[in-house]
Design goal:
The structure is a single chain. With 122 residues, this protein is an all-beta fold. It is 0% helix and 52% strand. Strands 2, 4, 5, 6, 9, 10 and 11 form a 7-stranded mixed beta sheet that branches. A 4-stranded antiparallel beta sheet has the order 1-3-8-7, with no helix packed on it. A hairpin with a 5-residue loop joins strand 5 and strand 6.
């Protein structure tokens, strides 16, 4: 019943910024973690960042630490990914996902959004 809708992708020059949004509906979120993943052309889907809904604990892939920030707005049931200092290697389809937080940070993500394209030009 959980539905995730991602938005905010686009074309940006290297060094620029984007903020992705993911609106969550259909389920209460107290026991869930939210995650962002990305998949570049001809590569497997990779973890980017995660946050717990109730406590706001965060976890990041090494490749984005210091550049990306994950956050959530409880009132809007929305999770964000602020991406700064973007590099061409950040180009990918970005997906939001949700799963129970009981095995945090090794969350089993059972629900996935449709993805939003981020393209970083050099």
């Amino acid at each position: 019943q959980v539905q995730l809708v991602a938005s905010g992708g686009g074309l940006v020059q290297a060094g620029g910024s984007l903020r992705l949004s993911c609106v969550v509906s259909g389920r209460t979120l107290s026991n869930y973690a939210m995650g962002w993943f990305r998949q570049a052309p001809r590569k497997e889907r990779a973890f980017v960042a995660a946050i717990t809904w109730s406590g706001g604990s965060t976890y990041y892939a090494d490749s984005v630490k210091g550049r990306f920030t994950i956050s959530r707005d409880n009132a809007k049931n929305t999770v964000y990914l602020r991406m700064n200092s973007l590099k061409p290697e950040d180009t990918a389809i970005y997906y939001c996902a949700a799963g129970l937080k009981d095995r945090w940070p090794n969350v089993g993500y059972d629900y996935w959004g449709q993805g939003t394209q981020v393209t970083v030009s050099s």
